[in-house]
Design goal:
single chain; alpha/beta; Spo0b-associated Gtp-binding Protein, Chain: A; Rossmann fold; 6-stranded mixed beta sheet; 5-stranded mixed beta sheet; 14 strands
Length: 370
Amino acid sequence: MKFIDEARIEVVAGDGGNGVASFCREKFRPFGGPDGGDGGRGGSIRAVADRNVNTLVDYRFARLHKARNGENGRGADCYGKGADDVILRMPVGTLIIDEVSGEVIADLTEHGQEALLARGGEGGWGNIHFKTSTNRAPRQKSDGKEGERRELRLELKVLADVGLLGMPNAGKSTFISAVSNARPKIADYPFTTLHPNLGVVRVSHEKSFVIADIPGLIEGAAEGAGLGIQFLRHLQRTSLLLHIVDLAPFDANVDPVKDAKALVQELRKYDESLYQKPRWLVLNKVDVIPEADRAKLVKDFKKRFGWKGPVFEISALTREGCQELVMEIYNHIAAKREQEQRQVQTPGMAEDARVISSIDPDDPRFKSVE
C-alpha cells in the first residue's frame, strides 16, 4: 500500500428535512386540527481514530464525503427519518485542520477517539408546533437547516517516542532494523527510505518504546532539495531525537561535520520547537575505524561540531554499542513518562507551592498565640 501522510478533503453534512403544514381530515373529525410532522435531521460527518489504518491513501483519491439529507415531514403526525452519520476512519496521529480558517478541529491521538467534522442540519418544524389557543389552524412551517460544509487538510504525524535524524546513507535504516522489529529497505545508495518507518524496540517483556525513521535530509532541504522537509512533521510528537552521523563516509570529499551542521540548520528552519527537543549525537559505522584512531577522531568531531550533549559510538551493522544506547533511551523515556504522570495526578501541587511560598512569615495573622 502506498504511504500517504497528507490529504485534502471536503466534507458536506446533510441538510435537515422540511417540516410540513397538514391538517387532519378523518371521518367524523371535520376539524381535526394541524398534524404536520417535523423534518428529519441531516447526517453529520465524523472522524474516528483507528489503529488498523496506517495511511491517508483513501482520502487522497476520495476527496468528497457527503452525508444524506433528512427526510421531509408528513401528515398524520409523521416525522421525517433522520439520516445516518458518515464515519471516516483515520490513522491514529491524524491532525485535522480547517483549510479556510486554519483552525485545528481535532488531533486524533488515541484509538477510538471521535471528532465531529461537519454537523448535519436540524429538521424543520411542522405546523403542529405552531398551534395555539388563538391560532387553531396554523399554516406556518419551517424548512430544515443546511448542513455544514468544510474543506479540511489532513496531516498524519506518526506516534513515536524516538525519532531518527541523519543524512542519506547515515545508517538510520540499519539501526532501526538492528534494534527493533522494523524491516525497512536497506541499500548502498542514498534515499532508499522514501517514507517513515516505525519500529517497536523491546527492552524486556513489559518494557518497550517506539522509534521512527524518516527519509534523510540534505543541505537545502527547506528549499525542497532531496525529498525536502515534508517528513519532519513525523518527529514533532517524539520526546527524543537521535542525530545519526556517518563517521566514516566512503567518499573522502564528504565532511561529516559539515553535513551534521547543515542538518541542524535545516531542522531549525523547519520548526524551532523541534530544534529545541532533546537531541543525542550517535556516531555510526565505528567498526570501520581502527580502534587506535577512534578516540582521536571522535574528539576531533565533537570539537569541530561544538557538541556538548550526550554522544554514543555505535555500529548498526555489527550492533556494537546498540544495546547500551537502547537502555539509555528507555531510561530517558521512562523518566519522562513518570514525570508526566506525576503532573497529571497532582495538577494543583505547583499552585499550592506558589501560594505557600508567597506567605510572609512576619505577617501577624500567621504568628502563634502564646
